[in-house]
Amino acid sequence: MIDQNDTYLPPAPQSGRPAGAAEHEDDQTGLWSQMLAVFRDIGGSFDPFANDANPEVRALGRAARQRRPPQADDYFALGDLCARLTLHNAQLNEAYIAKAIAAYTRAAEIEAGERRPARVAVLTFAQWVVDVARALGSFEALKAAVLACERVQQLDLLANKPADRAHLYETEQRLREQMQRQASTASNGANGHDPQLESQMLCDQGQMLLRQSQPKEAFDLFERALQINQRSHAAWLWRAMALTDMGRFNDALASYDHALEIEPDNARVWNSKGALLTELGRAEAALECVNRAIELSTSDAKTKSIFWLNRGKALFILKRYREAREALVRSYQLDPSPESAAGIAACREQLEFVSSQAVGAA
User: Fold this and answer.
1) Closest CA to 212 of 36, 41, 30, 28
2) Model pTM above 0.90
3) Inter-residue contact 76 to 121 (CB < 8 Å)
4) Backbone angles phi, psi at 46, to 5 degrees
5) Are 301 and 334 within 8 A, CB to CB?
6) Of residues 158 and 360, which shows the higher confidence score?
7) SS3 state of residue 162
């Protein structure tokens, strides 16, 4: 296994296709309105790009979905961007692996003539993930590569390419063998069925499907994981996210509650539940959840900033603009972001409007 500080890992491959020209919106209050909006596809699932946490991915994703007619180049550019974000601090990010694959695939769906370049981009990217995972040598990196190989094999792009699919399958099997050897070593050579590991592997596969905008398929895997281990906090948490993407909001809230029964002091779950309640317009209940997340949080500054950002959103919806501004300023201090800056500007505008009305009525 190479050192975590190794800088000789190969850069992510790029298709080199530029996105279409976009008009830039400098109005911060307008940006805040966009941040409060949640973009869904026709089927009701979350748009994986337009709702991304990374501002650059989100901006390009929203520009791509607004383009009429849609352009393949936008999705090649999104794939390249997500590919570049996949490797960070010598770790492979499964979310961006899934999104890179999804973006290149979407380019081929938009224009039939782009199938070959999209297939080349996907296969090149998947091989890069495998090469990096082998260089890193960690169980988590190998798992990410397995999921990438598994997903690419399922693509319609490879339907008439048996040699490519066979190569990916063989690669996947070798990676799985390496993972099994590592798992065996980690458990001091213990043999036999490991329900906890099996449940975790199902959750890992479900996460990949969820990030690939396949919530129903992901949900089935989380259900299987829970059949093996009802006390799997991760399975209940990811199940809630799948249910959210499927539009089954009450079931999702119940799933979050199951996760909290197992780990009642998990700040991230409280925050996720609060974010869903905010989307449903239940801002008072959302505020209670986010406050609990802040109270319990021992996370890094970036994660805490998200909690404070969500508190600001709930307070803004409740028209408690002064408190919302204070929360958003705290978020910005922890980790400056366009979202918190836009929220602060929106709060300032609302407070000035309220003040002017009060002066006018006097």
Assistant:
1) 41
2) no
3) yes
4) -65, 140
5) yes
6) 158
7) helix
